[in-house]
Specification:
It is a single chain. With 315 residues, the protein is mostly helical. The protein has two domains: 72 residues, no CATH class; 222 residues, MetI-like (MetI-like fold, Orthogonal Bundle), CATH 1.10.3720. Helix content is 77%, strand content 0%. The longest helix is centred in the N-terminal third of the chain and has 36 residues. The chain is globular and about 85 Å long.
């Protein structure tokens, strides 16, 4: 296991290098670049030259990239062009909010998706299975922004149970206000993801139920709940865990629309604000952090496979 983890970490290094170069090159390939943001449209040639030298853009391309990469490796992602604050500080202020929303959304999706998948698989091809499959299709087909607006109209405007605008409240400091603030955005994302999780888990469960070991267990008189919980469920978890990991990784930087609807102060909203204001160092920093987290979650999912299925051997 240790050797496998070390090999995976070594494999991540060239991927990070290629991705970092792509991120750096993509941002600076945009017409205007950061110099245009700093000096404005009516700048003189002297002001443009001074800003270019200040940012180090007068250096060769390779020197610029290596300088940026060396600073990024030490945690120095530069300073925001607008707020003048360190990029890492701005990201650190938003990242806990995004992580809390991602965990809450996945919990909602699991609470909804797992029972639906189990019921559909146990009663495969029945009217209940078709009804639950319809729910999964509906959950996938409804846009998150539209569902979010409906939830705001119902729970915030009509019933006045929950706030329409969400703010970040650390759960470990104030659990009740945190749950009230997270309820609507987490439900919006959780309902959508529950459709994905239910479909994948149901398909995996149905496939496992047709296996020889299940027929053998039933022939021996093993109770059906035990067969499902101790045998079928565990073997069906591998593709399911993969999807859960991908969804968590997507939430880190992909919950932009939901964060915008509920004005939630997450990392995705920070990235959109940076793009709209052409804050290039902040854009680069957000994408790099999202990339590192995404790769870390994928590595954690691969390691988790061995604990779910001991038959997997890492060489």
């Amino acid at each position: 296991m240790t050797g496998y983890i070390l090999r995976r970490l070594l494999q991540i290094i060239p991927v990070l290098l290629l991705a970092s170069f792509a991120i750096w090159a993509m941002i600076y390939a945009v017409p205007g670049g950061p110099v245009g943001v700093i000096v404005g449209e009516n700048a003189t040639q002297e002001e443009i030259a001074a800003a270019t030298k200040q940012l180090g853009l007068d250096q060769p391309v390779l020197v610029q990239y290596l300088d940026w990469l060396g600073k990024a490796a030490t945690g120095n992602l530069g300073f925001s062009l607008h707020s003048k604050d360190p990029v890492l500080t701005l990201i650190g202020e938003r990242l806990p909010a995004t992580l809390q929303l991602a965990v809450a959304s996945i919990l909602v999706a699991l609470v909804i998706g797992i029972p639906i998948a189990l019921a559909g698989a146990i009663h495969a091809n029945s009217w209940l299975d078709r009804l639950l499959s319809g729910w999964s299709a509906l959950a996938l087909g409804v846009p998150t922004f539209w569902l979010g607006i409906l939830l705001i109209l119902l729970f915030a405007v009509e019933l006045r149970w929950l706030p329409s605008a969400s703010r970040y409240v650390p759960f470990w400091e104030s659990p009740v206000p945190a749950m009230r603030s997270l309820a609507l955005p987490a439900l919006t994302l959780g309902v959508y993801v529950s459709g994905i999780l239910a479909r994948f888990l149901r398909a995996s469960l149905v496939s496992e139920m047709r296996s020889d070991y299940v027929r053998t267990a039933r022939a021996k008189g093993v109770p059906e709940p035990r067969i499902v919980s101790f045998h079928i469920m565990r073997n069906a978890l591998l593709p399911f865990v993969t999807i859960v990991g991908l969804m968590i990784a997507n939430f880190i930087g992909g919950a932009v629309v939901t964060e915008a609807v509920f004005t939630y102060p997450g990392l995705g909203r920070l990235l959109i604000q940076a793009i709209s204001t052409r804050d290039y160092p902040l854009i680069q920093g957000c994408i790099v952090v999202i990339l590192v987290i995404y790769m870390g979650i994928n590595l954690a999912v691969d390691i988790l496979y061995a604990f779910i299925d001991p038959r997997i051997e890492y060489r």
